[in-house]
ATP-binding protein
Amino acid sequence: MAAHEAKQGHGKLAEELRELIDAAKQRRAEAVPGRGAVPIARPKGELASLLHVSYPARKLADMVLAQEVAEALQQVLKEQRHQGKLRSHGLQPRRKLLLVGPSGTGKTMTAAALAGELSIPLFVVRLDALITKFMGETAAKLRQVFDAVSETRGVYFFDEFDAIGSQRGLANDVGEIRRILNSFLLMIEQDESNSVIVAATNHPDILDQALFRRFDDVIEYHVPTDSEAKDLLRNRLSRYMAKTTDWGSLAIAAQGLSHADITRAMEDAIKESVMHDRETVSGQELLGLLQQRQVMRQRALQTNKE
Ligand SMILES: Nc1ncnc2c1ncn2[C@@H]1O[C@H](COP(=O)(O)OP(=O)(O)OP(=O)(O)O)[C@@H](O)[C@H]1O
């Protein structure tokens, strides 16, 4: 009805109808006991090996994000929440995102938080199952994934996207990976579903240039600044540490570490306290754990260079 009214030029009525439908759907979803607004969807058959589904409760507020990143993600959520209105005016909400940046800076967590905020399932695409030695098979599997994208609304997350999107070939077979990339380009271009597609990579430099314009937004992640590291430390540890804690010095000790590295150091510090029946975390101990992470990071950098 809404589409019919929109075609007749009754934009306002179409918009109101869509909003009524969206509100009714929302109420029905919220009536599901237990998990709240998330409808249950489980991939079946071969799709089950290609997609891993979960129903994250995460929110963007759980994350420490650079301001530009937070603003870009809020904009995606805003457009998703008003998608009925936007579509009734012939506008597409933002829904194809490419996240780039170093490991452990929150790309996967973002996909989960978007799903949590929108109360829709998160489908992680298993690239290892998707990419096989046989090109025909890979294209058919990719087709299945994109069919699911249009059939079941969700956040579809392609991690380590450079495996598909790279100009260079997997197993040195440039021709084959090129064909997989071409199928992906075609499918993402044709996709007009209401799912959110999120691709992430640590290696944007090797992505094919043709890919960038297929996404509505390319969002860049970085290791935390001192002030972001301070927020990350405070968010998790303020209830375990003394009021006089010098968060600034701890943040300096964390310079260059990713959010994931800092989180692991904090978790280790909390574990130590729990195992020794202590209710607080010692600043000195945390400092030591952050330094250990720095050593591990240097080693990893060294190995990557060799
Ligand atoms: N921005 C962030 N704010 C708060 N915690 C974070 C953030 N980024 C990462 N973390 C912590 O680090 C963990 C790992 O991060 P995540 O898997 O999202 O990184 P990633 O960028 O996807 O890494 P990779 O590129 O290696 O897949 C998260 O589960 C969370 O505990």
Q: What stands out?
A: The pocket of adenosine-5'-triphosphate is lined by residues 63-65, 103-109, 159, 200, 202, 232, 259-260, 263 (CB under 6 Å). The chain has three domains: 1-31, 37-220, 226-305. Strands lie at 51-54, 96-100, 122-125, 155-158, 196-201, 217-220. The first helix runs from residue 2 to 7.
